[in-house]
Every structure is written in structure tokens, then in C-alpha cells.
Amino acid sequence: MYAQYFGLKQAPFSIAPDPRYLFMSERHREALAHLLYGVGGGGGFVVLTGEIGAGKTTVCRCFLEQIPRRTNVAYIFNPKVTVAELLKSVCDEFRIPYEHQGPGQATIKDYVDPLNEFLLKTHAVGQNNVLIIDEAQNLSTDVLEQLRLLTNLETSERKLLQIMLIGQPELRTMLAQPELEQLAQRVIAHFHLEALTEEETGQYIQHRLSIGGLKRGRLFDSKAVRRIHQLTGGVPRRINLLCDRALLGAYVENKSKVDRQIVDKAAQEVFQTAKTGPAHQGTSKTASTSASGTPPRRKKGKQEPWMPWLAGGLLFAAIAGIGGAAWLHQHQKNQTSKLPGKDAAGAASASRAASAPQHTASSASGGAMSTSLAAPPIDARMVYQSAFRKEKDALRALAPMWQVTLGDGGDACTQAQQQNLACFRNSGGLALIRQLERPVVLALHDDHNQAIYAVLTGLKDQTALLQFDGHTYALPLSALASMWRGDFTTFWRTPPEFRMKILPGNTGVVVDWLAIQLSKIDKTAAPSGKQVFDATMQSRVYAFQMAQGLKPDGVVGATTFMLINRAVGIEEPRLQTGQTTARRNDVLHP
């Protein structure tokens, strides 16, 4: 409600883990380094602890965005389970099929055996496996011991399963128990995430305001920042709660900045604390609603809460015929205005700068693909019979989705380049395909290990949609895994005069094009004149890459271009999916 008043694009202190607002302090970077070290550290356990709201989830999210390719990830976020329930969840996360053998109830062996087989097979083809358990302080001793036993499977060089435990400080106490000494000896990295310092608190507040659209200046004076750090202890989640209410208070009192007095009043509302008392973590005062249609009178010298005043104002608006719900809906629409571009879905994706855009698909005629996710089933034998024997033939079948035609003679990628398309080859598997969200040509292997090719047009949680001779069929991912090693090829639409990746210091038409697209994404005025890919533009690219889940290196290559195209709505075919959010822990193949 206060965003427009302060010239912001949106409220900057939401407690939702929006990657655009990622703030990495030195401690967060060190915690991330520990997790990344753990992936290549030979297996075992990595432990990350921290207070509630200290940013453990932020670090974990950043870790998932930078995790090495050919790494399978299982993420358990509700570990208050039995040993059997945990093993079942791990198998489900890794997409491992299991079944009970013999009479009676399912046993632990029904899950451990297929899990061990999966670990051996994936290791044989050069993949790593990581199990992440959030809120690990809720694990029982029996479950922790079973996790230790899972790490017994190893080669002469490394363990085949890397386990990361993320939890509150009491997790350290648990691991110090004598009965868990064997597990504690397998911890190869342990980091405790401390809260932000006072200086970092100020940087954190200004960072979120800048991302939220603040152009210049500061909305919190130095005394307010000092008080915020004192009341929150430097815990990011508490900072968000307090700053959000403080900005609301400044808006209600018609002030241009937040001072200490406003912070104290906000703390009383958010933390239910006295003016000089410490902030109480995890508590929140429920806003009351005024029964009258006018704001309550304020008595001089008495600090009254803002939420009843605001609720009374909204009630008055509703009685006057505006309609509170409609007003709020319209306000939210104004705060998330669409970007210019051909594809409204892509524009909405850019405004969120998230990695889960709207899902559409284009056909050769430019409209939506007629293929339904309810496609007839196909098995591996039928794929072997129907698949393309040459990649160029599969690429020619893919080309009409891009509204181009490739001839029979010559190299398919060379012909595509003449029509402003470039080929993109990668071995990133399903995780990258879901992220790029476009149909691709899969490089498969038949039962004689001969190369064959298939056009992938859609993905559901457990099903791949393959297209042969203009017809679409549904193949279980478990069957696809037996014939696919993660390699694929696709097209992407190149900007004008594109030759290769953009590096610092580059100029030209392609850099000018990039500057215009970034302005659309950032909702800033389009630049004019000759542009240079300097440090400022590189930092904007870095922020975009971070928000999209790419490795943030500031270099604009094919993957970054593809996601920019999607964000600004450049017309390209879209992968059909049966979900709105892509998973990052797909099993590439067994």
C-alpha cells in the first residue's frame, strides 16, 4: 500500500524468498562456499546451522542455483518422519521406483536396495547425488543413524551420497550426543550462520529498497537503522517484518523517511514488545479492525497502532462504494505493470524475475501447439522404431515450431543460422531443459547403443512428450532414463549481428539490443545512442542471471540470451508442462 507513496515498484520487505532480493553478506557467502565444497568434498555430511530467519533458506536456494551439472538433488523439507517414511521420501525425490517383495508390510530393505542400485548406476555414468534435509533439528536419533548408514556405500575415492543437514542451532547439540559420534565423525564441513552486523543491516535494508525501485536517497535514517539492528538482532526475516511495518507507519503519518520513533512504534505492533524491550522472534500481533467507518482519533502524545487506522480507512472506502477487495486488486495490478513485448506471459515472468514463467507453446503458424498433455502412451521399443537416425532430420522436424524450414541438403545448424537461429547443444539434462523451457532434440541410444534422436515437446512430473511424424506420445521418464544420457540440442533466436558471447568492453548493435532488453526487464527508460558493455551493464546482467537461477558470471552467452528472450516476450516456442513451477532436482538418468 505504501509502495507508490515512496516511489517503489513494489513492497521490498516481503518475507517470501524472492531471488531478486538476494543479499549475500560475507557470512552468507562463506556458508555457501561450505555447501559448494561439500559437493566436491568426497561425500559424507555437511552441516549448516543458524537462528530462525538468519538466511539458511536463502543460502540453500543460492546453492541449488549454482550446483554443478550432472548432480541429482533430493530435497526433504519435512523431516519429522520415521525411518521408513524418510527412505520412501528420498526414493520419491530421486524418482526411484520401488516395490515390496513378498508378503506382509513394506520394510526398510524395499527402499534401501533400489536406492543403493540408483547410487551405483549414477556414479558409473559420472553423476553426483545430494540429499538436502531442511529443518534437520527435527530428525530423530534413529533417522540420523539410518542416514549415516546410507553413506556407507562408497568407492575407494568417495562416498556415493552427499548429505546436507540444515537446521537451527540445536542441531549442533544433537550431533554432539555420544550415540551420534560416528555420524559426527563423517561431517566434512560445518558452518554456523551468524546474524548481520549493524553495518550489514543498513546495507541489507538499502539493497532491498534499491531492488524494490528506490532510485536515490535513503528512506531510513541512521538512528532508525541502528534501532532496527538492536530490535531484530540482525536477523533478516525480523528486519523484513519490522521495516515493512515501519514504512507503513511513515506512509500513514505522511512522513518522507522512517525515524527511530516510527521504528519503535512498528516494533510494538510487530513484536508485541515494549518500546525499549528486545524484539521477540516468531511473534506477530494480529491487526484489529475498526468498527467505525472513519479513522480513530489520535490522542496527542500517545502512540497508537497503524493497522486499526488503516483497516478503518479501507472499511470507509468499501462503504463509500469503492470496494476494498477491488481497490487492493487494482493496486496490486498497478504495482506489477506489464512490460512492453510480444508475449504477455514473458512480460509477467520478467516482472517477477523468477525462474518459473507462464507456459505457452508456439507452432509453425505462430499459435498455440495443439498437442495435449493427455497424449497416447509409448514404450521404449516403439521409440527405437520411430526415432530419427540422424540429428539433422530431428532438427528439421523441430524447425517448423520456430516458423522456419530447413532443407534436406547441408548442415541444419548452418541453415538455421541464416534465418537468425542458432543451435545450442548441452548435456544439462531435464533440469536445464525445464529452465530453458523450449522443445529440444534428445540424443538417445537404442538397445544396441546406436545413436537415435527424438523431438521433446513437453514434460510432466513423470512423463516426457515426444513427437514422431507429427503425432505426440507420452513416454515415462523412467523409460527415457534408460536410453538418454542428458544430451540435447535446440534452437534459440539470436539478436541482431550476434556472433558469440558478449564480454566486458564490447560495443555494437548486439550490445545496444541487450541494453534495451535489460531496460524492459528493469522497467527503466530505454537507452539511446551507442552502448558499451561496461561494469554497470554487467552488474545488471549479473542480477538477471542470479534471479533466473544461472551461474552469475556477468557474461552474456547463449543460455543468458535465451532467458532474456523469454523474459521480454520474444516469440519462441515453449515447452509444454503439466506444472507451473519447474523442479530443480530432476533425475537425469539412472
Secondary structure blueprint with pairings:
Layout: H1 26-39, E1 44-50, H2 56-66, E2 71-76, H3 83-93, H4 109-124, E3 128-133, H5 141-150, E4 162-167, H6 170-175, H7 181-184, E5 187-193, H8 198-211, H9 222-232, H10 236-252, H11 260-271, H12 306-319, H13 324-335, H14 344-352, H15 380-386, H16 391-398, H17 412-417, E6 421-426, H18 429-436, E7 440-445, E8 451-459, E9 463-468, E10 471-476, H19 477-481, E11 484-493, H20 509-522, H21 535-548, H22 558-568, E12 576-577
Parallel strand pairs: 1-4, 1-5, 2-3, 3-4, 8-12
Antiparallel strand pairs: 6-11, 7-8, 7-11, 8-9, 9-10
**CATH homology superfamily name of the domain at 26-193:** P-loop containing nucleotide triphosphate hydrolases
Low-confidence segments = 274-304, 311-373, 579-590
Major sheet: size, sense and barrel closure?
Answer: 7 strands, mixed
The secondary structure category is alpha/beta
CATH first level of the domain at 26-193: Alpha Beta
CATH topology of the domain at 26-193: Rossmann fold
Number of strand segments? 12
How far apart are the first and last residues' alpha carbons, in Å? 50 Å
CATH architecture of the domain at 26-193: 3-Layer(aba) Sandwich
Helix content: 25-40%
Compute the gyration radius: what is it?
27 Å
Coarse morphology: flat
